[in-house]
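Write out the bound-state structure for NAP.
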Amino acid sequence: MTYVPHPVRYSRMTYRRCGASGLKLPAISLGLWHNFGHDTAHQVKREICRTAFDHGITHFDLANNYGPPPGSAEEAFGGILRTDFAHHRDELIISSKAGYNMWQGPYGEWGSRKYLIASCDQSLKRMGLDYVDIFYSHRFDPDTPLEETMGALDHIVRSGRALYVGISSYSSAKTRQAAAILKDLGTPCVIHQPSYNILNRWVEKDGLRETLEDLGIGSIAFTPLAQGILTTKYLGGIPQGSRAAQGKSLNPATITPRAIESVRALDAIAQARGQTLAQMAIAWVLRDGKITTALIGASRPEQVVDCAGAIGNLAFTAHELAEIDRVSAEEDINLWARSSAE
Ligand SMILES: NC(=O)c1ccc[n+]([C@@H]2O[C@H](COP(=O)([O-])OP(=O)(O)OC[C@H]3O[C@@H](n4cnc5c(N)ncnc54)[C@H](OP(=O)(O)O)[C@@H]3O)[C@@H](O)[C@H]2O)c1
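---
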């Protein structure tokens, strides 16, 4: 059946300016890292994307390697663009990235001009797009001059392949260098994509949020739910079908008794706020306006609905924030720590 988007979708979402740019992003964005590969039925992917758009989520985040197999998430999203969103391209912000291993040989990963431009072309082809709205360097490459990686991003914009550029998992120090190079080239760095959640606070220690504010760069925090740990699903063990049961990016060993104790206490705080834990975890990331948008993932449309409900209460009292700090400890869950340590 022809998809007709929800008529009041834009009044269901809050839009926040991305740094000093003119681009507004929904407070909640949807990422297609998991559940958009060949391991998930196409209809589920469609329903997740439709539900997101129906709730005013206009930003869909992809990367060359999302799948499995790598590339299949972009292909699936390309299909959904054609069948469901064909008349809504100008209402969407679609991003992709290159940085991780995508194809064999020396030109299939990291940050060379050769890799970034070829990968961007492949992503456009898979999604059937003329341009992406945002193209990212997915990780800092210690072996390629930053000038080359940023020069490739600048070229990607100037050649019409992308409208804006961003960087992901770069440290504060490398972000300053990258932003300065891009500024000189005349293509500003519009957005940074770091991991950030209640149990993974590297950005606070690194000072990244303050750096971004200082530079006028927006931010999109990925894994705001710590890949699902910051929901109630693991309180009774590891449920079948959950990400931790799939042997992919969420190692069940990282869901320690201490983490579960934190999650239980955080859930009590969320309940007292009249929110689900997922909603509170998203609101926490967005709490002081330093993060532009929270980048969630979902395995079912119902999860998108729950997460979108977070915008109903983004404000915290000082007491709630102190309680969240008191009951939660940092867990060893930051898979991207190596990149941002460079
Ligand atoms: N730049 C980078 O290097 C990088 C790295 C990682 C991710 N990302 C981006 O960030 C996006 C989000 O990452 P993520 O999927 O790990 O984020 P996340 O939001 O922390 O975790 C998503 C998972 O949490 C569970 N979930 C979501 N909503 C729920 C709800 N309301 N109730 C219960 N469970 C819920 C689902 O797990 P189940 O599958 O168990 O149901 C879902 O797959 C990715 O898609 C990608 O776009 C970027």
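---
The pocket of NAP is lined by residues 31-34, 61, 138, 168-169, 193, 222-228, 231, 233, 242-243, 278, 295-299, 303, 306-307, 336 (CB under 6 Å).
The mean pLDDT is 97.
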